[in-house]
Amino acid sequence: MPRYIAFLRAINVGGRVVKMDRLRALFAAMGLDDVETFIASGNVIFDSTSKAPRALEQRIEEQLRQALGYEVATFLRSAPELAAVAAYQPFGASEQAAAGHALWVGFLKAPPSEEARQRLLGLRTATDDFQAHGREVYWARRTKFSESAISGALLERALGAPMTMRNVTTVRKLAAKYAAAR
């Protein structure tokens, strides 16, 4: 049975608090198996017989909207897809290891268009660099969030699509724990 990782947007941010036991119960009520959560930021791991990830994404979004009363954009990746995301090296190893630098992964529903990629690359600065690969955007941030002019909202406007971000450390931990198990 395929294992999926759902990256949920708008969970435990902006005053919208959802306890992880409730989130697990909501996923289990959808008929999804072996539901787990990973840290309280909207990462849900589960098994499903569904072979149609996009339809499953839409079903989860609808069920969460009904249960929580607001839109929760959902970005599914299979365990092998997540392993590939975690293994991808968009920037040099020395870049990622430098003090004060952070790498973020933005999950999208579809690969960005060439126009969207160009708008994204147009946001590059001395402290922020970007690369789009598949359905992900990688953001190398060479300063604190508070010192960057870039925000998730600005990235979404440039891409013309909703997205949710995770630190690469979280992505790699998820891949090590769940993608390797399958």
Give the gist of this structure.
Helices cover 37% and strands 24% of the residues.
**Net shape:** globular
CATH architecture of the largest domain: 2-Layer Sandwich
CATH topology of the largest domain: Alpha-Beta Plaits
Overall number of strands:
8
Q: Tell me the span between the first and last alpha carbons.
A: 10 Å
- Structure annotation, total helices: 7
Order of helices and strands: EHEEHEHHEHEEHEH
User: Taking all residues together, what is the mean pLDDT?
Assistant: 92
Q: How many structural units, i.e. domains?
A: 2
The value of Rg in angstroms is 16 Å
As a percent range, the share of helical residues equals 25-40%
Describe this structure in words.
This protein has 182 residues and is α+β, with helices and mostly antiparallel strands. The chain folds into two domains: 3-82, SP0830-like domains (Alpha-Beta Plaits), CATH 3.30.70; 89-168, Alpha-Beta Plaits, CATH 3.30.70. The chain is 37% helix and 24% strand. The protein has seven helices and eight strands. The chain has helices at residues 20-29, 53-68, 79-87, 93-97, 114-121, 152-159, 168-179; strands at 3-8, 33-37, 43-47, 74-78, 102-107, 128-133, 136-141, 164-167. The strands form two sheets. Strands 2-3-1-4 form a four-stranded antiparallel beta sheet, sandwiched between helices. A hairpin with a 2-residue loop joins strand 6 (128-133) and strand 7. Helix 3 (79-87) packs across helix 7 (168-179). The longest helix is centred in the N-terminal third of the chain and has 16 residues, at 53-68. It starts with a strand and ends with a helix. The model has no long low-confidence stretch (mean pLDDT 92).
